[in-house]
Design brief:
Layout lengths: L16 E6 L7 H14 L3 E5 L2 H7 L4 E3 L27 H13 L4 E6 L1 H23 L5 H4 L6 E6 L15 H22 L2 E6 L6 H10 L3 E3 L9 H15 L4 E6 L12 H12 L3 E5 L11 H20 L7 E6 L2 E6 H16 L3 H7 L4 H12 L15 E7 L6 H15 L2 E5 L2 H5 L2 E2 L2 E2 L3 E3 L18 E2 L7 H10 L4 E6 L1 H13 L10 E5 L15 H18 L6 E7 L6 H10 L3 E3 L7 H17 L8 E6 L8 H12 L4 E5 L12 H19 L6 H6 L4 E7 L2 E6 H8 E2 L4 E2 L7 H9 L9
Parallel strand pairs: 1-2, 1-4, 4-5, 5-10, 6-8, 6-9, 7-8, 12-13, 12-17, 12-18, 18-19, 19-24, 20-22, 20-23, 21-22
Antiparallel strand pairs: 2-3, 10-11, 13-16, 14-15, 24-25, 26-27
Helix pairs in contact: 1-10, 2-3, 3-4, 4-11, 6-7, 7-13, 7-22, 10-19, 11-12, 13-14, 13-22, 14-22, 18-19, 19-25
The protein binds adenosine-5'-triphosphate (ATP).
Length: about 775
């Protein structure tokens, strides 16, 4: 996420009354949005109101529109559903209902409304804004309001936040709730896959999405499903034969399981519904497979929000308040979106119209157009799924003379998503006719020798070898921290000996260093004049050239689980603060984003360091919080300290200082999750991004085919980092990144995109007094 966000831009705001509501279907993360809006509004000197039960509460008014204080939203971030309620409201669809809603708002002095909901809710909100002046005029005319009451409220500010598990809104890559729902689905399919494996069964799993196949597509990618049905891309006319052929082929190769994902809205080219039962019958009758149907239903909606949804809702909620304060009467209502890694504002009306166009386009059978109307990632992910899901794709195969031997190596510590990326790269290679070669156990495995004889742990991989890897944590081909510079001559020799034409390096800062060394060694070792890509994978997210490394999302989810559990353990004693040590090396990314996602009281990072003044101030805040708390707070307080934030103020020392200063009024405990942060299984985001990065990396390596070694070495893109930068996925040349963007001493990027979020953590935790929030 980019720091270009005007979160803390100076505001010339007059004291405003800002209301927030949740509407339409509930989605995990909605509470995080409410918390962020309420606290950001208060921090900026405004009054915050919550409208309970969606538009129903707006129309009914009275107690349904409640002034909300800072402490009222404590503990909201971790809760699923929506704590302020939601409803479908027929009255708001009618002008008389909106008339009552306008009156209720004016009576409380509110003229800014932040709505978190789906496209229906946002359509209603925009209509309300358009009608606002005429509604007020009618209310004055009917003497339900006086002209004085409406003075200064001539415009209604509307800001949209998209809360929906379906991820069906155009103009944003992710809606609040969609990743939590994907977590639920992947957990379920992982469980189903275990039983399918045991009995060699087939499972047809129905997932939500009447008009949008995002959940189905992403769960199919995350779980390595054999076949997929989504509304935007109906299968070919002879799909029954096609599906049976693919599944038969997979079984022949030795695959023991079959998973087919069917979106609720799956249909054929004639818009006839394809039901899970249709698919089951086919698999049972045509292929004789023991096939079961599982309909996941409402479990997909519930549960605690995942780390990403907590972060997204917090960033978007805070930006929504800024959007209100920066709006002029001419500004069109915005919807707060995210494109790749960047929070942006888009015109709400346009986003809603585009979204509604998708359904119309599908109804007109313009499927290709429908696919491209979805977010920027959707069509690309669909292609990645197709390429990596099936072993037999004759139309993808390259001619014999264009095929390469592609080396794949893992370097550094394991990170969630490494295996998914490797599986995708291997599947891509197999599909294209390349030979994927695993260089086991990092560079030390590659250069193993017996006397003069190379004994490298090097082996060609087959599609079947890695068919189950997507959901696995750790590193299936082994990893270690050895760098090529330990024995560059042998590394170069082995590259030639094993006939490696292109190299994919998966890993964190060590992997980045390895690629830098290999690039520089080309001058003396011509065998290294081959194309190479680093695919960043590290929990620390400290690889220059990308704002996102595989494994960092898994880590944040593990950390949040750990902290939620610690907090809960404090619920009986309540007055407890946990000082929790996070990984991250010299980068405070993990600590800061985890702090944002869980509402930590304070975050200590290596970038900022720790000093006694800071501790003093934070202990004062703790005293104040615990003095005020009459037992209403749901749980303990969290302070996150990055492992390298200070040599002096260790986690233990900080806890001891707090304990001593608390003088019995509250207690302090230490929590060190350590390797727990690598996560057991990779999160869905790390899996799907692993697949996308893996495919893209291979496509990049292919572009060098046919070039001479010198031509390759002369092209700066022949050693590149794949990564997300702002709103784009791109490759960046190593040569530039290592020279201009790398802080080698601290093993992190020189400019860390997330640094600005630290202020937001402090603002929303109350650590930063309102007088300092601009
Ligand atoms: P989901 O994606 O979960 O369905 P949604 O926001 O699209 O969420 P809807 O039921 O379509 O859910 O809308 C929620 C509420 O928004 C409706 O009950 C109604 O009160 C209001 N609303 C929807 N469409 C309109 C409209 N065209 N005019 C006025 N109000 C509307």
């Amino acid at each position: 996420m980019s720091t270009e966000l005007p979160f803390l831009a100076p505001s010339e705001a007059k004291k405003r009354k800002i209301a927030v509501m949740t509407s339409g279907g509930d989605a995990p993360g909605m509470n995080g949005a409410v918390r962020a809006v309420v606290r950001m509004a208060i921090a900026k000197g405004c009054d915050a109101f919550c409208i309970h039960e969606g538009y129903d509460g707006l129309v009914k008014g009275g107690d349904m529109i409640k002034k909300t204080e800072w402490d009222d939203v404590r503990g909201y971030l971790a809760e699923g559903g929506t704590l302020i309620g939601t409803a479908r409201c027929a009255a708001f669809r009618e002008r008389w209902g909106r008339l009552k809603a306008a009156k209720n708002l004016i009576e409380k002095g509110i003229d800014a409304l932040i709505v978190c909901g789906g496209d229906g809710s946002l359509t209603g909100a925009d209509l309300f804004r358009k009608e606002w002046p005429s509604l007020l005029a009618e209310l004055v005319e009917k003497k339900e309001l006086t002209a004085e009451q409406t003075e200064g409220h001539g415009n209604l500010n509307i800001v949209g936040l998209v809360g929906s598990i379906d991820n069906d809104m155009c103009s944003t890559d992710a809606t609040i709730g969609c990743y939590s729902s994907l977590h639920r689905i992947c957990d379920s399919v992982d469980c189903i896959a275990d039983t399918a494996q045991s009995h060699q069964r087939a499972f047809v799993v129905e997932v939500m999405g009447r008009h949008c196949g995002w959940l189905a597509l992403m769960s199919a990618i995350s779980t390595g499903a054999d076949f997929l049905f989504i509304p935007e891309v109906p299968p070919a006319r002879d799909w029954k034969k096609g599906m049976c052929n693919i599944i038969t082929e997979h079984r022949k190769m030795g695959k023991r399981t079959t998973i087919v994902i069917v979106a609720e809205g799956a249909q054929d080219l004639d818009l006839k519904k394809i039901s899970p039962e249709d698919v089951r019958k086919l698999l049972a009758e045509e292929l004789g497979l023991d096939t079961r149907v599982t309909t996941l239903g409402h479990v997909q909606r519930g549960g605690q929000p995942c780390a990403y949804d907590r972060m997204l809702s917090t960033l978007q909620g805070a930006d929504a308040v800024n959007a209100v304060l920066e709006a002029t009467p001419e500004t069109p209502s915005p919807v707060i979106s995210i494109i790749e890694n960047k929070i942006v504002r888009n015109p709400l009306v346009q986003a809603v119209q585009l979204t509604q166009q998708v359904a119309d386009t599908i109804a007109r059978k313009e499927f290709d157009k429908a696919l491209h109307l979805r977010d920027s990632e959707f069509a690309e992910y669909f292609k990645s799924y197709l390429i990596t899901s099936s072993v037999d794709q004759p139309d993808l195969k390259l001619p014999e003379d264009k095929r390469m031997r592609v080396g794949i190596i893992h370097v550094g510590a394991p990170a969630g998503g490494m295996n998914a990326a490797t599986r995708a790269a291997v599947s891509y290679c197999v599909g294209r006719g390349h030979t994927p070669v695993a260089l086991y156990n990092g560079f030390s495995g590659l250069i193993r020798h017996h006397g003069d004889k190379p004994l490298g742990a090097v082996r060609e991989l087959t599609w079947l070898d890695c068919v189950q890897w997507t959901s696995r944590g750790g590193s299936e081909i082994g990893t270690n921290r050895t760098l090529p510079s330990d024995n560059m001559d042998t590394v170069a020799y082995c590259m030639e000996h094993y006939k490696i034409d292109a190299l994919l390096i998966v890993g964190g800062f060590e992997a980045f260093t390895a690629l830098s060394e290999l690039r520089q060694a080309r001058a003396t070792h011509p065998q290294l004049k081959i194309p190479m890509v680093i695919l960043p994978a590290t929990v620390s997210n400290n690889v220059p050239g990308t704002e996102y490394s595989l494994g960092s999302d898994t880590c944040l989810n593990a950390l949040i689980e750990f902290c939620d559990t610690c907090r809960q353990s404090a619920s009986s004693s309540r007055r407890r603060v946990f000082v929790i040590e996070t990984q991250g090396g010299e980068s405070g990314y993990v600590a800061t984003i985890a702090g944002l996602s869980m509402g930590a009281m304070a975050v200590y990072t290596p970038e900022e360091g720790i000093n006694i003044k800071m501790l003093d101030r934070d202990i004062d805040s703790l005293r104040a919080v615990f003095a005020k708390d009459k037992g209403q707070s749901r749980a303990g307080k969290i302070i996150l300290r990055n492992e390298k934030a200070s040599d002096t103020y260790t986690t233990e020392v900080i806890a001891n200082i707090i304990r001593a200063e608390a003088k019995g009024r509250f207690e302090a405990r230490v929590g060190i999750p350590g390797h727990f942060q690598q996560g057991k299984q990779p999160s869905p985001m790390d899996r799907i991004r692993g697949v996308r990065f893996g495919v893209k990396s291979l496509q990049h390596l292919e572009t060098f085919f046919g070039k001479t070694p010198d031509e390759i070495a002369a092209d700066p893109m022949s050693t590149a980092v794949i990564g997300i930068r702002g709103a784009r996925l791109k490759f960046s040349p190593m040569e530039t990144i290592e020279r201009t963007e790398t802080d080698w001493k601290h093993r992190r990027p020189k400019d860390e995109f997330w640094l600005g979020f630290k202020d937001l953590v402090d603002t929303l935790s109350g650590r930063r007094p309102p007088s300092e929030v601009h």
